[in-house]
Amino acid sequence: MMRRSIVFALSVPALLAAGGALAHHGWGSYDAAKKFTITASVERLEWANPHVHIDLKHDNATWEIVLAPPFRMQTRGLTPAMIGKGVRVSVEGYPSTRSATEMRAERITVDGKTVELR
User: Fold this and answer.
1) What is the annotated signal peptide range for this record (predicted)?
2) Tens-binned pLDDT, residue by residue, of the chain (118 aa)
3) Torsion angle, CA of 28/32/34/38, rounded to 10 degrees?
4) Distance CA 85, CA 102 (A)
5) What global pTM score does this model have?
6) Partners of 29 in the beta sheet?
7) What span, in angstroms and rounded, lies between the C-alpha atoms of 85 and 75?
8) Which domains does the chain have, with CATH numbers?
9) DSSP at 82
């Protein structure tokens, strides 16, 4: 009985970590058949793992844009200052199938420079 308890106690963290990894890497909740572009000024920037997020005001709604991880953004030449609040950007990507105002961005254009995110 003691051995079962130990195995169970050690298994729970592993299962939780695996579930988080699956949730993070799943892009199935975005409609790849409906690519579109939003051009607007950044309302909010969240530069954090696992993905950078920005909010853009578009058609009287606030859109949450899911970008690449911070490390990838930096290795491709983007810094938080470049996409901070008030900066005009253009993002191209796919709408969420779960939220009417969420997009997974494939590329972002800032100050005339286009950066591939995936």
Assistant:
1) 1-23
2) 666 655 455 554 544 444 444 445 577 899 999 999 999 999 999 999 999 999 999 999 999 999 999 999 999 999 999 999 999 999 999 999 999 999 999 999 999 999 999 8
3) 90
4) 18
5) 0.78
6) none
7) 21
8) 36-116 (2.40.50.140)
9) G
